[in-house]
Amino acid sequence: MDKIIIHGGKQLSGSIQISGAKNAALTLLPCALLTDEPLTLRNLPRLADIDSFQHLMNQFGVSTAIAGSRPEDFGRVMTLEATRITSNVAPYDLVRKMRASILVLGPMLARMGEAKVSLPGGCAIGNRPIDLHLKVLEALGATIELASGYVRAIAPDGGLPGGRYSFPVVSVGATENALMAAVLASGKSTLHNAAREPEIVDLCNLLVAMGAQIEGIGASDIVIHGVPRLHGATYRVMSDRIEAGSYACAAAITGGDVLLKNACIEEMEATVQAFRDAGLIVEPRGADLYVAADGPLRPVQVTTAPFPGFATDMQAQLMAMLCRADGASVLTETIFENRYMHVPELNRMGANIETSGKTAIVHGVPRLSGAEVMATDLRASMSLVIAGLAAEGETQVHRLYHLDRGYERLEEKLLGAGAQIERVGDD
Ligand code: EPZ
Q1: Least buried of 155, 223, 316, 414, by fewest C-beta within 10 Å?
Q2: Where in the sequence numbering do the catalytic residues fall?
Q3: DSSP 3-state assignment of 251?
Q4: Full-model pTM
């Protein structure tokens, strides 16, 4: 296991290349199951979760080839070919490592007429049930069976007929599974209160590029007209809006500035609003986004919500930045029930944060002090890095496997912007 050592206090300045979006890539990869033709994905981030998903696809008999990319390049090109599927089972030992494996359920069901996936357990940030995934697939005509820790989804003989479903709660993953199942249904499907995240739009754009017929892309009401088959495609994964926001917080807490290469402001409006409320300069510059501190950070009030609201995946990183604001900020986490595990570690660094249920009050402090801290989940680990960049002295962040799931070559990117940071083995 590795750890990161940061000597804080260096003002960040420079440009940071934003990688392909993890949460888009994880729903684009299973689309390869929907056709027997090659699917080529460009700008895939080099992340542990992508490697895990590639391994899962190989498990089904899907061939995957990484096109030559130089070690110094960001992102990779992967061609997937599901000519013959030799297994429609996603086993426990793979699913337990990466809960996004559940996103093979819909496409495997659509292609094979049956899919069996180990139930993903909860995770650090919450229980994360999959009841909505199962309900929407039933609404599209599937029979669902739960036994021995697995979910089995079966389509009627002629394949899924399609149907209508209204989500009681906005769910990104359940919307994604529904879309990937509905595109090959024999009839029309209608989704109400569907998730509208940019990653869903990316999925719809890929499916349309493969020949799917989808109306209402980006809206909460989506209509899918099933087609008999889909063809291959070559598609570029969107940039990672959460990674971009994370590095913006890193530059801001150090009083610096950063040009986020390939960051798309339209996908980050709620985050950008929070940054501007906190007193930051935020300017789109061509295909890039410029973010700079502009005097002391101001406290803000933010509530997480489904897109276009403030992203829950940005909550921990914004909280770290607000530890150095002039005054008290109020954050409310409405999506996951246990997404404040970064708070005790931030407080060990001299932050002054109180939590009560869904609400966290972040009392700004004049300084943070470096400490040995423990990552608990992906975004919490990034919040500790952000705090460490501003803290006086040395911060060591342990259990980096959390960070490696979502941030491609983080140290290199931060080094390039002036941080004093290194990765070392953690005995
Ligand atoms: C996706 O998770 C993202 N992961 C998460 O990012 C992100 O936090 C989340 O969407 C919300 O934006 C990927 O895309 C791989 P949900 P997902 O279904 O699909 C409840 C990160 O840090 N719910 O939108 O699992 C659920 O418990 C990760 O990159 C049900 O009750 O999220 C939660 O409270 C973390 N039943 C809420 O809905 C269900 O069947 C939103 O979950 C499904 C979800």
Answers
A1: 223
A2: 123
A3: helix
A4: 0.97
